[in-house]
User: Fold Response regulator from Cohnella hashimotonis.
Amino acid sequence: MIQALIVDDEPLHIQGLVRHVGWERLGYAPPLTAESGEEALEVLGEMDVDVLITDVSMPGMTGIELLAKCRADYPKLQSLHTLMISGFDEFEFVQEAIHLGAKAYVLKPIRTEEIEEKLAAFRAAIEKREQIERETRALQDKLTGSLDVLQDRFVNDLIEGRSEDAELMDSWRRLLDLPEAVRHIRLFLFAYDRQERGAPADARQRILLADGLWKAVKIGLSGWEGTYVGKTGASETAVVHLNAKPLDRAGMEKQLQFMQEIIREQYDASVTIGVSRDGDGWEDVPPLYKEAKHMLAKARLGGGGRILYFDRAEAEEYREYLLKEEEVPEMIRLLERGEDDQARVMFDLAFERLLARQPASFSYVQAFGMGIISELAKIGSGKEDGADNANILVWQRLIDCTDAGEVREAVLDYMARFSRSIKREDAAPQHNLIRRIADYIAAHLQDPMTVKQLAEQFHLNASYLSVLFKKETGRTISDYVQDARMTRAKELLRDPNVKIYEVAAQVGFQTAAYFTYLFKKVVGQTPQEYRDYAK
Assistant:
């Protein structure tokens, strides 16, 4: 049955709900009770609770603070259905509670029929969630009977880097009975070469070839423990092999050529196979796959039908490829976005790898530095006065370098100069935009105002506006609006002819009660106390 918890500092209110609500008729167990937020948290920590019914206004911890604490500190309570009970003049508090995830509220004086209506709606929602969970578990059980589907999805999840999700990996361990400890991992990548009689003419043929490759690999490697096979593309299949014993490794490698022959006989197609280096854990699978894929793409230029091993020479070439095609472009993108620290970290890591090469080559380090500066110079040329002269000077500085440390400092100095140039270029329009938004906020303090509304007003993406505003002002938009309202409220309170409820309305609050609550929370005095002190 569904379990509810009633929280109220008035014992008579609790007793009334316990006695007059038809809990059993509604499908609920007898409710648990607590007379404070602190006591409620103890109950929630020890008992399984589905529904929380709490008064908004309580001494010590309010109902809103209780709900916020539940959301922040108790992950298991994220699906908790909450019913807030409030007085009419506390409606603003209820709005805040709804933002925190409260599902419903009722106003005092409480009517039993209204409480029961909300509880019935909660029960229906809980039953639907439980039904979905049951059907999901049933689907999981059904999938367990289809090992091929599971293996395919598992291999793709590993390649896509989802092994960082601990909950996902725990579910895979249960479904596939994976070993608890992974000592080493090796990846095999099987990929069709260009067909000797041309590419497949239609979709049906492509599907037949893809399924044929997958089946041939699955059957060919079925005798070895710890192998998981997945289709990773229309013309390739990957195998992840866990904790292979030396005899198994040798046996699998002997099987590879036989599998190539079978595929050639059955589908008149040649296959190239890439064998990765050894990895130490799940997180190594994505780079193992990328390395093997790069190795196969390069090998096809010299003809297909080969079995390739990712050795030291391949590793060296792949690192150079990554540096040129991925890492340097990413450093430049980071600098263009103003993320200088991350760009510097990437540069330092790449630089250290270059120095660790055996034998270490100063000319290669120098060429690496020149490559980065060349790419930055293309982007920065003409963006500021004297850029061309500065480029000539840094080229000369690099040519005059006599050791790797000097190259490093020269490149880092140029990266910093480029970053400053980008920031100066971006700062002026951003500053003007934020100033216009701040002026708009000041002129519309009496109106409801959300980040989404502001973004629409200025034709911006809401997330982008939030980041830009915080970067420019050092405050979030909501904090800025609240501060602006409090500042304006203080000005109005100095005029004794303006009533407090009029001050509340002029700075955007629907009720004087919520304005008083927030003003005291921010300023440390009630509006009346502030007015009296300011006289």
